[in-house]
Every structure is written in C-alpha cells, then in structure tokens.
Amino acid sequence: xxxxxxxxxxxxxxxxxxxxxxxxxxxxxxxxxxxxxxxxxxxxxxxxxxxxxxxxxxxxxxxxxxxxxxxxxxxxxxxxxxxxxxxxxxxxxxxxxxxxxxxxxxxxxxxxxxxxxxxxxxxxxxxxxxxxxxxxxxxxxxxxxxxxxxxxxxxxxxxxxxxxxxxxxxxxxxxxxxxxxxxxxxxxxxxxxxxxxxxxxxxxxxxxxxxxxxxxxxxxxxxxxxxxxxxxxxxxxxxxxxxxxxxxxxxxxxxxxxxxxxxxxxxxxxxxxxxxxxxxxxxxxxxxxxxxxxxxxxxxxxxxxxxxxxxxxxxxxxxxxxxxxxxxxxxxxxxxxxxxx
Length: 341
Description:
- By secondary structure, the protein is an all-alpha fold.
- Helix content is 81%, strand content 0%.
- The longest helix is centred in the last third of the chain and has 37 residues, at 304-340.
C-alpha cells in the first residue's frame, strides 16, 4: 500500500469515527440494540450472502471477459481482483483507487495491461450504464414518491445521476475511439516526462503505443461479440439489484413487510441512495450515505428500527465486506512479495 492509499485509509477512519458519532448521538441505544437483536437470523444471513454475492459477481464478469480473450484464468483469482477493487474503492475518494490496484495485480499475474484495461473498463461502463438506466427509470416512474422520501436530498440524486451519465459518455468515447485512448496514453507519458517524473525512454514509448494498439484490438473483439456484452449486462442487472434487495431482506427480517411498503419502494430508495452518493469525493461515501438512509427510510422503518436497520444494512453491504476485502488485499500484497523474492 503506497503513501496515497495510507492517507486515504486514515481519512476513511476519521470519517468513520465522525459518522458513527453522528449516527448514535441522541439515539436510545438500548432500543436500537433491542431492534437489531429482534432481526430474524435467516434474513440476516441471507442479506450477508447477498452482500458477498454483489462483490463476487464482478469477479465472475472479469473471469468471463478474460476467458473470452483466451486467458485460462481461474474464477477464484478474478473474484480476488473484485475484492481488492472493493477495498481500495472503499477507502479512496469517488472510488478512484479500485481499478488501478486491480490492474496492478492482474499485471503481476501475467495478464496484458491492454486486455486487463479493456476488461475492467467494460465492466465499469456496463456497471455505470445499468445504474444510469435504473436511475432514469426511477425518475420517470417513481418521481413523486422519490421526492417525498428523499426530501432535501433530491438535488443529490440529480447530481449523482448527471455525474454517472457524464462518466458513461466519457468512458464509452475513450473505449470506441482508438485515437483518443492513444492520445491519452502518449500525452500522459509526455506530461510525466515534462515534470521529470519519468525519464525519456524510446522503448517505453514504443511499448505504450503497442499497448494502445492491443487495447483497440480487444475493444473491437468485444464490439464484434455483442452476445458476450449482452450476457454481462444481464448479469450486472442481477448484481445491482442484489444489493438493493439486501435492504428488503432486512425490512422483512424485522417483521415489517406486512405494513404496506412494497419491495419495489424499498429497493428503489436504496438504488436512489447509491446513485446520489456514488460519485461523491468521500471515501466509501461515509456520512452522507447514512444521513440519506435515515431521511429516505424515516417513513418506512418506525422508531428505533430506523437506526437499527441502517446499522445492519450499511454494516453488511459496506463495512463487513470492506473488512473481508482488506484481508484479501493484504493477502495479495504479501503473496506478490513472496513471488518477487
């Protein structure tokens, strides 16, 4: 872990401390703990399995796309990449640290940088595209309830939807434009040489140009195999819905499913929170996620169940998975050092 990631981790821990303080301040903790203890164990473990499925699913998509490019890689290795990505995304602002670290370990294990970049970018574009389509659907078909539930946070939903849409457009343009990608790669190298971060190297420049050409070939391969992209899109929809379904499982586990709120409403609100905070420059979107949750679900989870459900939901879909991902990242770090030695 480099100095930048260590700083991000420290900021993450400070935000976590402030978030927990803000959450629990003014709450009857005895009532909250009692509400948490009343959760049906079956639904708790089903929700936990859903949280781990959400992260693992990305690994299976990476595995599927790498296999399409004739890499004989194991599914378990690709799931490992997805947990590493989750950890570094979770501790860095706007989740910017995940893919570079995934790329680093993929290169360490013999995958071409060009192919790995295409695979990771394809997964990222489809992930964001599905999120944007869902967001637009919620805005069109669920607008009035959304405004009633989100209240003053509705503007964040608009901002998140706009930023995600913008990112999808930019990533698609980079993917389908070989000149643009090559320009970014070569321009980036020139900039680093100008600031004397990199030394002049003709061989490195030639390798970067070769990588850009290989990248374009991989993009063309996927564009010609639309069936593979369609399969990834469908699996991404299942993956995205799984983490929204997690909140519904907690709702049912607390015995509240007979109170009139539908699964669609609970899942749509969780999706709206994800869309709103996904691009914010906060490690793990801490603080704002919890505040939005308490506002959005204030009419759905009564009394102490609101804070209890938030602690369980956020604990499962982020903090527990983050701890597991940290262990995987540490294991990958020491394993790569052993290989080098």
